[in-house]
Amino acid sequence: MAYNNIIVETQGAVGLIRLNRPKALNALCQELTEEMTVALDAFEANDDIGAIVITGSDKAFAAGADIKEMQSKTYMDVYKNDFITATWERVARCRKPVIAAVAGYALGGGCELAMMCDFILAADNAQFGQPEIKLGTIPGAGGTQRLTRFVGKSKAMEMCLTGRMMDAEEAERSGLVSRIVPLDDLEDEALKVAAKIADLSRPVVMMCKESVNKAYETTLKEGIMFERRVFHSTFATEDQKEGMAAFAEKRSAAFKHQ
Ligand code: HXC
Predict the structure, then answer these.
(1) SUPFAM superfamilies from the entry (predicted)?
(2) Mutate which of 67, 78, 79, 88 to test ligand 1's pocket (most atoms within 8 Å of Cβ)?
C-alpha cells in the first residue's frame, strides 16, 4: 500500500514505521494514524516480523495530534467517533514488541504514542511533554494515565498542569525512557535491539510482554499468578526445549518460533 504520511520498511525480521510529515513536525493527523494502523496490522500478520520500531525525524518524533485538524471539531464530532483513541489504541494492542525510538519533540499525542509502545529509546535531544492544557484541553490518548504510571503523580501532575517539557536526562531519571543514546545512533540502536528481540522465541516474547503489561493492569497477587501460569505454559513450547538444550550443550539456540 502507498502511504502519504509514514514510510514503512522491513529490515530482516524488524518492521520499521517512520512518521513522515516533516513540515508539520509529524503532527498526528487522522490519515497518519489510520496509515499506522494499517502498517501495524500488516506487521502483526507477517510471520517473518518479530519486532517493530516506530520513529520520527531528528527534530520530531511527533509534535502531537494535529491541532489544525482538531480545532473546529464539536463535542458531538469527537464523542460520536470516540476521537481519537479508538484508532490510536491499535499501538497498545499490538502483540508483537514495539519500540519507540524518539528524537526531538514527543509532545501531546506524540508522547502518548511513545508511551503506548513497549519501551522508549530516547536520543539525547528528545523532549517529552503533555502541553494540551495550554490549548484548553487535556491529554486524550492515555497521557494522564500512562505518564502517571511511568513517572509518578507529582511529576505527571506538574507536566500535565503546566505543559512543561522534560528533556531526555530527566525522562531517563524518571523512568519514562529505558535509555538515552546519541542522536546519530538512535535508529541503528533501536533496530539492533529490535533485531535481538526478533531472534528470540516469538511466542515466548509475546507471553513475556503480556506478563509485564499485566503489572499495570491488576493487583500484585493476580499479576504473580498470571506470570506463573504463563511461565508454566512456556514449557509447552518447542522453543523452551531448544533454549534450555542449547544452554546445556553450550551452543546458540535456534528458535523455531513455536
Ligand atoms: C499541527 C503542528 C503541530 C501540531 C507543529 N505544527 N506542531 N501542526 N499540529 N501539533 C506545525 C506548525 O504549525 C508549523 O507549521 C510547523 O509544524 C513547524 O512548527 P513551528 O511551531 O514553527 O516549529 P518550532 O518553532 O520549532 O516549535 C516546535 C514546537 C511547536 C514547540 C513543537 O510546533 C509546538 O508547540 N507545537 C504544538 C505542540 C502541542 O501543543 N502538542 C499537543 C497537541 S494536542 P506552519 O505551517 O506554521 O509552518 C494533542 C492532543 C492529543 O496532542 C489528544 C489525544 C489524541
Answers:
(1) ClpP/crotonase
(2) 67
The alpha carbon torsion through 181, 183, 184, 188 (nearest 10 deg) reads 50
Map grid coordinates 512518521 to a residue: 19
The span from the CA of 198 to the CA of 14, in Å, is 7
> pTM of the prediction?
0.97
Residue 173 · residue 128 · CB < 8 Å: no
Active site residues per annotation = 65, 109, 112, 132
Contact of 94 with 46, CB cutoff 8 Å: no
Lookup result for grid cell 530516547:
122
Q: Per-residue pLDDT tens for 92-119?
A: 999 999 999 999 999 999 999 999 999 9
Pocket flag, ligand 1, residue 25 (CB < 6 Å): yes
